[in-house]
Amino acid sequence: MSQRLDYYKLSPEPFRHLMAIEKHLHQSTLEHVLLELVKLRVSQINGCAFCLNMHSTLLRKAGEPPHRIDLVAAWREAPCYSDRERAALAWAEAVTLLPQHQVTDALYDELAAQFDETEIVDLTAAIANINAWNRFAVPFCKAPEIEETATA
């Protein structure tokens, strides 16, 4: 499927603001890998091939073992995620799927046990931001930028 239009080129101003949020997040106390796992999970939920490719690539470049990237869709059953990562992934799913999930006090309490209040706001900003990116890439059919690798 070919890209329907180049949204970034046609109206760059909204994306400058999304990029400013990304810059803030990279300066926050949230770990890079945690942010990328959350972005990967949200992009899986939203079916965004462009973002799935980008965030799995960034995780590989950060040295994440393949199984932690491969299993993020089934993080509840996979023992390789920390309690902090699990709380973030649960929050990401609930915030992304608001109509289907309740953002309950119990879920918030699990999150608050792992993150301080500023980190909770920043994590929620990261989730909202990747949802925004997905909502442009998916309807306008932004294709993933695949890096071809040689096979042995």
Automatic annotation (TrEMBL):
Signal peptide: none annotated. It holds the Pfam family CMD. Residues 12-94 form the Carboxymuconolactone decarboxylase-like domain. GO terms for molecular function: peroxiredoxin activity. InterPro entries: AhpD-like (IPR029032), AhpD_core (IPR004675), CMD-like (IPR003779). SUPFAM superfamilies: AhpD-like. It comes from the Bacteria. This is Carboxymuconolactone decarboxylase family protein. It comes from Blastopirellula sediminis. The lineage of its organism: Bacteria, Pseudomonadati, Planctomycetota, Planctomycetia, Pirellulales.
